[in-house]
Amino acid sequence: MPIVKLNNAYLTRLTGTDIERIRASLPMMGSEVEREEEEQTDVQFFPNRPDLYSAEGTARALRGYLGIETGLPKYEVKPSGISFSVDPKLANIRPYLGSAVIRNVHMDNAMIESLMGLQESLHWAVGRGRKKVAIGVHDLDRIEAPFSYIAADRKTKFVPLDYEREMTMEEILAEHPKGKAYAKIVEEFERFPLITDAKGRVCSFPPIINGELTRVTENTHNILLDVTGIEPRAVGVAVKILCAAFVEMGASVESVNIDGLVSPDLSPDKRIVSVSACSKLTGIPMTAPQMTELLMKMRFGAEVIDEDRVAVEIPCYRADIMHDHDVYEDAAIAYGYDKIETSLPPSFTVGKPHPVQKLYSLVRNIMVGLSYIENTPFTLTSGELSYKMMHRPENPAALHVLHPISEDQTIIRTDILPLLMESLSINRSRELPQRIFACGDVVEDLVTSPKMAAASIHTAADFSEIYAVMDAFSQMMSIEYEVRESLDEAFIPGRRGDIYVSGEKVGVFGEINPDVLVGFGLEHQAVAFEMDLRGFVEEK
User: Fold this and answer.
1) Nearest in space to 269 (alpha carbons), one of 332, 321, 326, 330
2) 320 labeled part of a ligand binding site
3) First to last CA, the chain
């Protein structure tokens, strides 16, 4: 979760109360106060509430929670007369655009910092690192409508933010800090997304960087907002949250025509919720008027229909309200979790670790003590990896996936060692030595059982090393074993051994067959052992 830095003076001005009262209320609204300083308060909100990632959004919620200003915030959106066109060539690159015009902005330094913080937090929470959504904020008075969102030639030049010279879009990806950070989002495309004004001047290269031409300063009074992305709902959420924040700053919002579609739509969603269902879920007895009052504290519009139904208007910025239960949760927050009477459940049990988990814990402690690092491979794998690449016969007891989503996930694992070999292959460019282990469930003939495996790769890996590791593991597990000659083709003949306990084979160890190493793209010697642990699980 991002850390939201709230300027104390700005926050108290927006909220209309003192900072101590604010700090006392924030945890009850679902936030965690990370740091309290003279000039700012740092807090964390859950990712489901991106509308709170700014002083403006936090103040709006606080005014309701504290009873200073309750009910649904009203947003008037007038048409701006400004239009945007979207290039059809963007369909497979970054096709979705949301926009708005913000008028009568009068920002001081605290407002600018709040806006920048909100922008970056939305890039994380909604935009998934700008891949799904990227935001541009521009000084509208320095550019001219109409605007175009185009798929531009990679050699197109403009002056990026914080630079004084023109650069091609390719140069920006290679040299600009933002370009290097986010190049992976667009570098594979033949053309790049670009926003230009009526004179062809560049406003933004989404999702990478804005143009220096449209830099927002304290002298900016009219703003063009652009939000681009690959998922239309996420784009719409970001636009609404930003517009609502600007209104809290005292600005007004105007709509933009995007190829015939009007953006933004700040009207509330509507639903009818049940009072009895809310009481049952939360354990809080309430009437319809009481529920209405609680919801209005959370900045919903709410009106009693009858004794069991309340009509609710959901603010445009509340993207987290997907079910009636989300509304009930807000009613409980407004009521106060600290006011809910505590009681013991009618029945309860005392938990204890499952025997298999106790076994895994012991295995982990031993292997970490032997300087091995735990690996957590997937449960689904393929027959190609598990058997063919390991030079082992197919296991007829393997459980196959009926409708696999890829060729790499066709069976449930029957062994763990092949997955460790895959991990070594993925990390073959990393420094040596690499010593890894894993323990977990495998499935054979619909029976789940515990297994473990360990592997080591470096220039001097040999049979003696892995024999010593296997022996140390067995001693610490109190396993009395004997070694017999092995025929497992995953290992080198003469440098491999089967592990037997009470006359039953439970594992194998040795030097990995060079043909197996080549198949996994490994260039150094590797050794490994694996062991079936089902006989070592304590009885419940």
Assistant:
1) 321
2) yes
3) 40
